[in-house]
Specification:
The structure holds two protein chains of two kinds. Chain A is an alpha+beta fold. Chain A has four helices and six strands, in the order αβαβββαββα. In chain B, α2 packs across α7 (about 170-205). In chain B, a hairpin with a 3-residue loop joins β3 and β4. The chains are: A alpha+beta, B alpha+beta.
Amino acid sequence: MTAGTLHTSGREPMLLDELASRFDFVMREHLVIDVLPDAAYDAIEQHRPPDLPWGGGAWQRLGARPGQEVVFDATARFGIPLRHWHEITVEGLTTVWEPHLSHVAMAVSVRPYGADRSLLSCEARITLEDPASERWFRVYWRLITPVAKVLTRGMLRAIGAAAHTIGPGK
Amino acid sequence: MTTKTQPSPPGTNLELLADKFAPRHEVMQTQHLVAVAPIEATYTALRGLDFTDIGGAIVDAAFWVRGLPERWKNRHHKTTRVPTRLTFDDMAAGSEWVILGERPGEEIAAGAVGRFWKPVIEWRHVDADAFTEFAEPGYGKIVMSLSVRPYGGERSLLTYDIRVILNDSASRAKFRPYWAVVAPFVKVVQATTLRTIARTAEQRDVQ
């Protein structure tokens, strides 16, 4: 378990705000779990998000605010049947460009919910690097959002289940 | 009398009124929404929420259907009272609900006691002071908590937490099938409530 983690007021900017302040689409899901935040954070740290469907590729870990938030990135051409993605660093977020390329920055974060529960949040922000692809992506996003929400809720439940095995809660 | 705790810096007080008034519960259903407004503006919008403003096709239809048995029962009464405004303060002044407590700037909780699984709900007025101890068989307690916490530097995370406490196994047996039907509609009402609060907070924050 993460020792001595401080849970601050939560007013500090999120790492996601630093890494993806500009975005075109967003999706958020939340889940209350009967586990203390330290154990929940450890479960987030140990969790590997599932690969994105339909050619989206794999997630890269971009950074973390210990005890609170882990941010991942997937940079790819979404919606094409062939897998086409980039392994990217924080610097690459602003330098990599090619037609139809999109960044997805995803933060999985935890906040206390009462004295012995945690509130898990997952926020995915999509930034289109090529404005020409916006119209196509809007259609793709409308199609994929219900699936993405189901996958995200499944991921939060999996993190919650793992957290239960790590530490006690309510 | 309701509990009004001293304000603490938002996000640092870990005690929830929902936990205080419903530590053990039959069901707990939460909905969450991020508002693009600071916590102060969001709580102001939450505190001033007029529940009669919450609407939409599904919400209106759900309340209309739920009210059918009562309207049928009262069909010979020409005048039925329909509130034109219902804020938390109005609740305290005259409704089945009582304000259980408030953590100013963070959370407000209200409760009601009744047999809400019956076609015509039988409410039972229980004061806030007696709410926690009330455990008469045949009745259930609802605790609703609306809370807000910081979500990054400039946004807020709203939570609508509904919990139901039942005092005996017979009530539990009646409540479970009722909840299986109404839970999805309650979820829609919770989500619509949060959207109403967020919209108000975001508009005020822009002005």
